[in-house]
Amino acid sequence: MKWVYLVAGIALYVKMIVMPNPMAEMVDVSIVETIVQDSGVPNAVSGIIFRNRLYDTIFEVVVFTLAVMGVRFLMSNEQPLTHIYQFNDQPSIVLARLGATIAALVSIELAIRGHLSPGGGFAAGVAGGTAIGLIAITSPTEWMQKLYQSWQAATWEKISVLIFIILAVITLIGLELPYGEMGSLLSGGIIPILNILVAIKVALGSWAVILIFIRYRGLL
């Protein structure tokens, strides 16, 4: 039976390599031209990504929100740890905070230039969450929790999602900000604003998850 699967796999491989793709001959050049004109981007592949990226980002925000809610639900019946061990040697503290500074700068770079290079709001939020995590492993948990509450991070997280949804709906309707010169920082229209909002949402959500795990599971 294994030989049958092997022969079938080889036959499929030969078919894909040797035989031409009939769909490639049916592609109309006008489709590519339409995508380029509609998106305003010379690269048709980038134009397709730009036209569908908003839907992908919306579901990324939804999935991450469900993940944060899931962590809170799973830890709701846990007992907080009475003592949390943290890094207290000076070299580890210096390296962690240096890494946090670099991660925070990378987060800003990915958010404001995500439409020009690999990056975007979700990647920027992950970098921001990494910076917060590095600070958390070298700082008192009570101080991090107090800072989270005093800055009303949970409220800003919800506000960023709400603004993102409103702007996304406006964009899907067809209203967009003017685009600058292609390749410049202001050429993304509303995309950089959406990236920044997603970055805020993911970073603050990561902060909440980190505090929950530290409180109930510790660090070391």
TrEMBL record:
Residues 94-207 form the Na+/H+ antiporter MnhB subunit-related protein domain. It is a multi-pass membrane protein. It holds the Pfam family MnhB. The keyword Transmembrane applies. Its main location: membrane. It is found in: Cell membrane. The chain crosses the membrane at residues 57-74, 94-112, 118-138, 159-177, 189-214. The keyword Transmembrane applies. Keywords: Cell membrane, Membrane, Transmembrane, Transmembrane helix. One of its GO terms (cellular component) is plasma membrane. InterPro entries: CPA3_antiporter_subunitB (IPR050622), MnhB (IPR007182). Coiled coil: none annotated. Belongs to the CPA3 antiporters (TC 2.A.63) subunit B family. PANTHER family: NA(+)/H(+) ANTIPORTER SUBUNIT B, NA(+)_H(+) ANTIPORTER SUBUNIT B. This is Na+/H+ antiporter MnhB subunit-related protein domain-containing protein. It comes from Crocosphaera chwakensis CCY0110.
